[in-house]
Design brief:
single chain; 4-hydroxy-tetrahydrodipicolinate reductase; six-stranded mixed beta sheet; six-stranded parallel beta sheet; Rossmann fold; DAP_DH_C; alpha/beta; Dihydrodipicolinate Reductase, domain 2; 14 strands
């Protein structure tokens, strides 16, 4: 089923898997991309079945494609690639089964999750990784999982910056963000525990879970730098209570319940930190002012390379008609959408950021 549409001059046929906070932007991105053709969209909500996907994606116009929950019907379209953006945080292994199933059916996939598939070494069992490798060898289809974090902000961006280094002592990749406008109630309440007592311990804060979620970032950076990390990786978590009642898009947070968190996943070599993933997550801009701050309101992704020379890069984004959380969904979707031609052209199996050529926004410059 794998095609080489880009080499024939024909657009690559693409299916989008979901119309949620990332999927709707993927639909818009594919609609604008000259080398891609949207041919189908999958939805989980029965109320969305049969509706035009242009309306579901808030494009303000119809695209002539009806959303469906029929997996087999979409595979029968023989798409060159599936842009998979369905929620994975609360159904990791079910989602992995879906993604592996697409590759086994001969369809390339780019996906926003589960994020551990960005670099699954030492996270997934060898037999699972072998299953994917065997499927890719048999069908020629590839799987690439990426986005913004885990993704571009902590793989391509920092590794590109290290090309300027003479000596590297530590690479630190950070997300510093105010999540007050981030609408994802399951993530905010059940996974992070915002608005709940500090005595409540969601699974995310149990030992080993942060490594499962973000260890892929640290280990992929280490692979790109050619170093071997001590195992297991080190985890540090600092959760803080909100000082005042705080309203967010996902949850109302009472004073005294969890309002902010800073966590790190640390990769060491001979006991010395060399690669560090750090998140500073607030639900109001003025919380815990002593923690790292973005250069402007909302948030940023930051890369700090300690060595010779010292380098710091702050990546700030915000939407044309929304804030940084809206644009966070856009950049996640577009990293996937713009990678489709390169992933389709890749050899079968798992494709990481280290495997891809330079991915650009070719064809997306606006016309007057």
């Amino acid at each position: 089923m794998v095609s080489t549409g880009s080499t024939t001059g024909l657009p690559l046929k693409v299916v989008v898997w979901s119309t949620g906070t990332v999927g709707r932007h993927a639909i818009a991105g594919i609609d604008r991309h000259p080398d891609l053709e949207l041919v189908g969209v999958w939805v989980s909500n029965p109320d969305k079945v049969g509706r035009d996907v242009g309306i579901l994606a808030d494009l303000g116009r119809e695209l002539g494609i009806e959303a469906t929950s029929d997996r087999d019907a979409l595979l029968a379209l023989q798409p060159d690639c599936i842009v998979h953006t369905a929620m994975a945080d609360d159904r990791v292994f079910e989602c992995i089964e879906d993604l592996f199933g697409f590759v086994e059916a001969g369809v390339n996939v780019v996906s926003s999750g589960p994020v551990l598939l960005q670099w699954p070494d030492k996270i997934l069992p060898d037999e699972m990784l072998q299953r994917l490798a065997d499927a890719g060898a048999r069908t020629g289809a590839s799987l690439h999982v990426n986005g913004i974090d885990p993704g571009f902000a902590n793989d391509v961006l920092p590794l590109s910056l290290t090309s300027l280094s003479q000596r590297i002592d530590e690479v630190r990749v950070m997300e510093i963000a105010d999540y007050s406008t981030y609408y994802q109630p399951v993530v905010m309440q059940e996974i992070y525990g915002f608005g709940k007592s500090l005595d409540h311990r969601p699974m995310l804060w149990e030992p080993g879970i942060l490594t499962m979620a973000w260890g892929s970032v640290v280990r992929q950076l280490a692979a790109g730098l050619g170093i071997t990390l001590d195992e297991p990786l080190t985890e540090e978590v600092d959760r803080r209570a909100a000082e005042v009642d705080t309203k967010t898009a996902s949850v109302d947070i009472e004073a005294g319940t969890m309002g902010a968190v800073r966590f790190q996943v640390i990769g060491k070599v001979d006991g010395v930190p060399r690669v560090v993933l750090e998140h500073v997550t607030r639900t109001a801009e003025d919380q815990v002012p002593e923690w790292a701050q973005p250069p402007e309101g909302g948030g940023c992704y930051r890369v700090v390379i300690t060595g010779e020379p010292f380098m710091q890069c702050d990546f700030v984004h915000h939407g044309e008609h929304g804030d940084h959380n809206v644009s966070g969904m856009i950049v996640t979707a577009q990293r996937l959408v713009n990678a489709v031609p390169a992933v389709v052209a890749s050899p079968g199996g798992l494709v990481t950021a280290l495997d891809l050529p330079l991915v650009t926004g070719k064809g997306l410059v606006a016309h007057a």
